[in-house]
Amino acid sequence: MKVWKGAWIVVLTCFMFLTACTPQPGLEEDLNAAVKKVQDSDGGATGNGLLRMSYVASNFEWDKLYIFSSKMTKEVVNNSLGFQWEGAKDDVVGGINDRQCLFVFVKDDKVVRTVKHDRGKGDFVPITKPLTPNTAVFLADKTEKGHWIFKPASWGNSRN
Questions:
Q1: Is there a domain that residue 11 lies in?
Q2: Could you say which residues form the signal peptide (predicted)?
């Protein structure tokens, strides 16, 4: 009987260890999946056409979201954030290129997460005034050339 009890403890311990070590999907994958879901909702498929960042970035706490393009200077980024961020470099913000945008999540005036997003998968307009978990809701517009542009739902149908 003791042998079986010991074997179960070993099996349970191994299971818990393997479960804890299994990599969880990253924020980039979650964002890409949310973008695809919105794109798939075009023409009446699944989804409601809205991307709620609070659903995408739900594994950590944040109170502000900014989206920066590669063309934004260190000064613009730091002025937007309201503090000096070491990720804002003189040449390339957050190490992104022209085909990417950088999502910067802030909590209590500290950058807690960033994610690079490939603009070819869905282009987000730069956001230099903070969005909160309640206001970080995006609508997608499909251009005549078939490109997707994501902008805050609070902007409505205007093309700001």
A1: no
A2: 1-20
